[in-house]
Amino acid sequence: MKEEEKQPTDIAQDAITHLLDYVENEKKIVTLQLIKSSSIAGGNVVAFLVLFFIGTMVYCFANILLAVWLGQLLNKWFMGFAAVTVINLFLLLMLIVFKQSLLVRPIQNLIIRLTTK
Q1: CA–CA gap between residue 111 and residue 105 (Å, rounded)
Q2: 77: nearest Cα among 64, 89, 90
Q3: Closest C-alpha to 70, from 56, 86, 55
Q4: Which terminus has fewer CB within 10 Å in the chain: N or C?
Q5: 116: which DSSP letter?
Q6: Other C-beta atoms within 10 Å of 48: how many?
Q7: Mind listing the pLDDT tens digit for each residue in 35-94?
Q8: Please, which residues have CB within 8 angstroms of residue 115's CB and are 6 or more apart in sequence?
Q9: How many beta carbons lie within 10 A of that of residue 67, not counting itself?
Q10: CA–CA separation, 71 and 78 (whole Å)
């Protein structure tokens, strides 16, 4: 006699079991992808903060060095610091004027590049 044919309820039960396994596996895959993306983002944030801190320190010390040097050249310390302040105000004004092209777009592009890796 032929092998026993599967009943429609058995086929449906097998399909449901496979569907549940598929959903569980997809959930695991999404979890692992989320962990990978968040670890990359976290690493980039920490690296940015470290570089920002070091860059800020270098910028501050360079400003002090330039101010002292200009103060000695002008024989008036306050003139050296005033000149560096004017230079920094000019840089700030340039950043404000060209904010879109110098800051916003590069940061947006960086975020898009990092999230689509």
Answers
A1: 10
A2: 64
A3: 86
A4: N
A5: T
A6: 11
A7: 988 888 888 889 989 999 999 999 999 999 999 999 999 999 999 999 999 999 999 999
A8: 37, 41
A9: 20
A10: 7
Q: Tell me: the pLDDT tens digits for 84-105?
A: 999 999 999 999 999 989 888 8
- The full DSSP string for 95-115 is HHHTHIIIIIHHHHHHHHHHH
Which token pair is 45?
A: 């944030």
Token digits of residue 31: 């979890």
pTM of the predicted model as reported, rounded to 2 decimal places: 0.65
Asked if 81 and 67 count as a contact pair (C-beta separation under 8 A), the reply is yes
Query: Could you tell me the two tokens for 49?
Result: 């903060």
Position 110 scores a pLDDT of: 82
pLDDT of residue 116: 74
Confidence (pLDDT) at 11: 84
Task: Cite the DSSP H helix spans in the chain.
Answer: 8-74, 77-97, 99, 105-115
Q: What does the block give as tokens for 104?
A: 């916003």
